[in-house]
Amino acid sequence: MKTSSKEHLMELVRRYPALAVCEADLEQAAEMMIACYRQGGKVLVCGNGGSAADSLHIVGELMKGFILPRKLKPELQEKLRSTCPEMAEYCIANLQGALPAISLVNEVGLTTAYANDQAPDLGFAQQVLGQGKEGDVLFAISTSGNSANVLYAAGVAKALGIKVIGLAGQTGGKMVQWCDVCIKVPSRVTFKIQEYHLPVYHALCLCLEEEFFGQE
Questions:
Q1: In which domain, by residue range, is 92 found?
Q2: When you count CB atoms within 10 A of the terminal residue's CB, does the N or C end of the chain come out lower?
């Protein structure tokens, strides 16, 4: 990890001193996601309720520019100019580099059909089975660490060789046993856990953006 990338994690702890207990896990999670992207993998994200909203938020920060412009690479710009010259300059001016990420909460048709036909608590797991591959990362969010559908997704991910990063409250709950690393923020109160989760995943997204789109 670049020094400038790690600085975002350090800044998080400076702004939220209580998160110092998570510092080692944060760094491990960042390294895991960096390795995933370097190997051509993607990040799958899941959670329920507020954590479902967080999963969408994370994808939004990874798939487009967060605080950096993420200009397209020169070789892609040239390919656009040669293959579709009439639209190339508009695309070059507006498209941004992306870090592949998918929120598993989006597929309403799939998850409702699967819940009705098969098992309502396996909707995330079914998507991990269909979308995931070895080398990917599952970013599993659960304030309690005990959400059944998140646990099943984590278990299937492990079976497929997918790394699992958990984001939970102080105890980590049952999810800890399925995680390669679990970031356990220092609270047992749901809304306070959620208030810590946002700056945590913002810092991770900033770190990743700097790693892949920042200055060399």
A1: 69-96
A2: C
Q: Would you give the distance in Å from CA 193 to the centre of its chain?
A: 17
Contact 151, 172 (CB under 8 A): no
Q: Is the pLDDT of residue 130 over 80?
A: yes
- Residues 176 and 115: their CA atoms lie apart, in Å, by 26
215 pLDDT band (50/70/90 cuts)? confident
CA 129 to chain centre: 17
Residues 20 and 123 in one domain: yes
pLDDT digits (tens, 9 = 90+) for 62-95: 999 999 999 999 999 999 999 999 999 999 999 9
Residues 181 and 85 in one domain: no
Structural element, H or E, at residue 67: none
Rounded distance between C-alpha atoms, residue 80 and residue 85, angstroms: 7
Domain count, the chain: 2
Question: Would strands 43-46 and 101-103 be described as parallel, antiparallel, or unpaired?
Answer: parallel
